[in-house]
Every structure is written in structure tokens, then in C-alpha cells.
Specification:
Layout (H helix, E strand, L loop, with lengths): L6 H12 L6 H15 L5 H6 L3 H13 L26 H17 L7 H15 L6 H6 L5 H14 L2 H11 L6 H9 L4 H8 L16 H9 L9 H17 L1
Length: 254
């Protein structure tokens, strides 16, 4: 059954929506919760037609059309309307559902509709296998950036230990190990709420080819840049994938 927001929640949603490019971490979590609460009981026919999980489609809608993480350069000004979607802030549950359905229709029409997160995770592993052999070995690849396997391993262990418990579980059981069911399976086994939001914040769902600019803002991206001193840029793909490989090894044993 569709969840209907009360008047206070509608007002909160509209306010957060208008400021969605400038939200605090707590506000991002809040708008994610409000939207997910509203849409989890709304399943238009397009959901079945797309062949994607309902929860995944909601998460994709939130990330691309509300939080707009697919935009490398978000609009600097706060407005009621996003620069390219033509949607004013929704004032009711029904308006939000209408926006969601329009998004699903757009997905059906788009030839480049994104693949499932599980396939993206596998694509990263395949990409790493293709890219890393271009270096003589991992040590040589790392050494070009003043790094070594030992140094990156130690930094990875410290990074993993400092993560919040939910994020640490998601990283260790989906990135570091061959977990059945992928992220959703890990989240289900450990009762992790808003797992897709947490995984996005961590950087587990930003592993597309070319490393989009917003990956640098994730926890993993920030760690790679600030702790290891490797800028998130296409020219550094080989060393970044080498770091991922070591992080995956350490996550497997954490």
C-alpha cells in the first residue's frame, strides 16, 4: 500500500528538494528516508517492464534525479527547479509518485539505461583484471605514486577500522568477499537500513568506467585522494585499481 505523507512531511520534502544540491549529510539521509517511505508501496507497471528490482529503481531515482549524483557540476544556485528535469518541488505523495513514474518512463525510452548494481560490481573486477597487467607489477604501479603494497595495506586496515559498523559490513562482505546476493543480500542478512544510500556514500556504487567526478566525494574516493595522495582522474586508473585490489584483500580479512 502506498504511504501517504502527512502535511509536515510534505513540507519537509518540498524544503529539502529545493535545497537538494546543498544538503548536510543528515538532511541527505532524511530526504532519502522520506522518498523511500513514499515510493516503497507504489509499483507502477513500468517497474515490471524494466525488469529491475523495485528497491533498486527507487534508489536510482533518488541518486540521479533528487541528489543528482550523476551531475559532475551541479547548479551553483538554489532553485525550485532542477536545471534539466523540469520538476518543481513535489508538494504531496501523489506528486512524488508522478515524478517517479515519469523517471521510469524515461528509463524505458533511454537506450543507455544503467545496468544493475551487481553487474557494475562485477564490471569493476573485470576492469581491474584488464587494467592492472599493463603495469609490470603492482609494486611498480604503486611506486610511481610513492606507494607500496605494505603502505597501502596498512592504510586500508586503518580506513576499514574507522568506518561506521554498517559501512564496514557492506565493504567487507560485498567488496572484499564473494557474498551471495550482493549488496542487497548483505543488507538483508545484517538488517542494514538504507543500504543503497550507505553504499553510495561509501563509494561501492560509483565504480563505472572512467570514475565519475562524484566518486571523489565518497568515503573511499576521499581516502584514496587524501590519505594515499592519488587524485581521482582517468590518468590514474591503473594505480586506483591497484589500490582497490589491496583494499579488497584487506576487507576480506577484516
Amino acid at each position: 500500500m502506498r504511504e501517504v505523507l502527512n502535511s509536515d512531511e510534505c513540507g519537509e520534502l518540498a524544503s529539502l528538494w529545493r535545497r537538494r544540491q546543498h544538503l548536510s549529510e543528515q538532511e541527505v539521509g532524511r530526504i532519502y528516508w522520506v522518498v523511500e517511505k513514499t515510493l516503497r508501496g507504489y509499483s507502477p507497471p513500468e517497474v515490471q517492464a524494466l525488469g529491475e528490482g523495485h528497491e533498486e529503481l527507487i534508489a536510482q531515482f533518488i541518486f540521479s534525479k533528487i541528489l543528482r549524483l550523476d551531475c559532475v557540476d551541479p547548479a551553483p544556485e538554489v532553485t525550485d527547479v532542477a536545471p534539466d528535469d523540469g520538476h518543481s518541488a513535489p508538494s504531496s505523495s501523489f506528486a512524488l509518485c508522478a515524478y517517479f513514474r515519469r523517471y521510469l518512463i524515461d528509463c524505458m525510452r533511454a537506450s543507455s539505461f544503467r545496468r544493475r548494481v551487481a553487474l557494475e560490481e562485477q564490471a569493476l573486477e573485470n576492469q581491474a583484471e584488464e587494467c592492472l597487467p599493463n603495469c609490470e607489477n603492482l609494486e611498480a604501479c604503486l611506486a610511481e605514486h610513492g606507494l607500496s603494497w605494505v603502505k597501502v595495506s596498512a592504510a586500508a586496515r586503518s580506513f576499514i577500522a574507522a568506518l561506521p559498523n554498517a559501512e564496514r559490513i557492506l565493504l567487507c562482505e560485498s567488496f572484499g568477499r564473494d557474498a551471495a546476493g550482493g549488496l542487497s543480500g548483505v543488507a538483508s542478512r545484517h538488517a542494514i537500513a538504507s543500504y543503497h544510500y550507505r553504499a553510495g556514500r561509501l563509494g561501492l556504487v560509483h565504480k563505472r568506467q572512467g570514475l565519475p567526478g562524484d566518486f571523489a566525494k565518497t568515503l573511499i574516493g576521499t581516502w584514496v585522494q587524501q590519505e594515499l595522495g592519488v587524485p581521482i582522474a582517468p590518468d590514474n586508473m591503473a594505480v586506483i585499481l591497484a589500490v582497490f585490489k589491496i583494499l579488497g584483500v584487506e576487507a576480506s580479512y577484516a
